[in-house]
Design goal:
The chain has twelve helices and eleven strands. By secondary structure, it is an alpha/beta fold. It has two domains: 37-134 and 264-303, 3-Layer(aba) Sandwich (D-Maltodextrin-Binding Protein, domain 2); 137-261 and 318-350, D-Maltodextrin-Binding Protein, domain 2 (3-Layer(aba) Sandwich), CATH 3.40.190.10. Strands 1, 2, 3, 4, 5, 6, 7, 8, 9, 10 and 11 form an eleven-stranded mixed sheet that branches. Helix 3 packs across helix 10 (278-288), helix 6 (172-186) crosses helix 7 (193-208) and helix 7 packs across helix 12. The longest helix is centred in the first third of the chain and has 20 residues, at 54-73. It is globular and about 65 Å long.
Length: 356
């Protein structure tokens, strides 16, 4: 019998007390021991985004940030993500879901969050590029061979063309589409404001008179189109390019001569970010404007805020007259004058839909 075992046999209570003391000492310093990174508890980020972001964020951008954070800080990061129509996720954030970072389809939803007290008014404008992370133009998808001969938004007003369109009540993309439709006609009259407004109204009336199906998000509208509904779909260029890259696209793309370049706005919901997690969240936010992240967006069909990177994707199509929401006074004015003042108050009642 060893000396230690003989001592324990003589005084078992003392040895038990010594063992418990040593165990408590180790437990008290355990969090500060230099353990391997894989043994540490992972950090968590809750990210919300509009519908077409799911694949690029889950499979490219967030994993790339996680790798960078682990390399620099020795900590794993787990991401909890949710993607839906921009209006839908805005409603969810307003109702109190624990999102920490959200990438919205349009700034209008950021202002809605500010009005509800979810984020500070204008906080996103202090981020790079006024909070805009990436862009994509609005295009038209048609059936193989383009049997309806559609080459721009004007062709969507012809009798017999059935359009699939996202719903402006839940989809940020739908609001961009309204601006694309209106603006494509209004910009034909750059020197005559009244004539431009009249042309924009006629374009909206013609397009929406042919809307046969609406869906909650741009992605849901694409699913309906793929299932055989309609002759044309108005959507993001990125949505088409991503499906084409996977070999799953059975439709053709039409680049209108004039269309809007959508700009997607990031917000940080600071009230859902603990003080200990702020360095992590702010590092993620900064990463989204890094060259690495921007190249990942470009590779998956989004256009970069750094135009020189767009050459990485040869599938981007040419648009003769691209325009932005700023060309029409920003989202507050577009919402008041075009979405509410023309589409909702005039077009919907005239084509037989109750104003919503």
């Amino acid at each position: 019998m060893s000396a230690a075992r003989r001592a324990a046999a003589r005084d078992p209570v003392g040895w038990l007390a010594l063992f418990l003391f040593a165990s408590l000492a180790v437990y008290s310093v355990w969090p500060w021991l230099p353990l391997p990174a894989h043994a540490r508890r992972p950090r968590t980020v809750v990210f919300y985004g509009f519908s077409i972001l799911g694949e690029v964020m889950n499979k490219a951008v967030l994993p790339a940030f996680g790798e960078e954070w682990r390399r620099e800080h020795g900590e794993r990061v787990e991401f909890i993500t949710s993607f839906a129509g921009s209006g839908t996720i805005t409603n969810q954030l307003t109702l109190g879901v624990p999102g920490q970072v959200a990438l919205l389809s349009l700034e209008l939803d950021a202002t809605r969050l500010a009005a509800a007290g979810v984020v500070a008014e204008g906080s996103w404008r202090r981020l790079p590029f006024g909070g805009v992370v990436n862009r994509t133009p609005f295009v038209i998808l048609v059936r193989p061979g383009n049997p309806k001969g559609i080459h721009g938004f004007a062709d969507l007003t012809r009798p017999g063309v059935r359009i699939v369109h996202p719903d402006p009540l839940t989809s940020g993309g739908a609001n961009w589409a309204i601006l694309a439709e209106y603006g494509s006609a209004a910009r034909e009259h750059p020197e005559a404001a009244e004539q431009a407004a009249a042309a924009g109204y006629e374009r909206l009336r013609g397009v929406w008179g042919n809307v046969a199906v609406q869906a909650a998000s741009a992605q849901a509208a694409r699913t309906q189109f793929d299932n055989g509904f309609g002759d044309a779909l108005i959507t993001y260029e990125q949505e088409y390019l991503q499906s084409r890259a996977k070999g799953s696209s059975k439709v053709e793309i039409v680049y209108p001569p004039s269309t809007v370049m959508s700009e997607h706005t990031l917000v940080v919901i600071e009230r859902n970010v603990r003080a200990a997690d702020r360095p992590l969240i702010h590092a993620l936010v900064a990463f989204l404007w890094s060259e690495r992240a921007q190249r990942l967006f470009v590779a998956r069909g989004f256009r970069s805020v750094y135009p020189q990177l767009d050459g990485d994707n040869p599938r981007f199509g040419r648009i003769v007259d691209p325009f932005r929401v700023a060309d029409f006074g920003g989202w507050a004015r577009v919402k008041r004058d075009i979405v509410d003042g023309i589409w909702k108050a005039r077009v919907l009642p005239e084509i037989g839909h109750a104003a919503r």
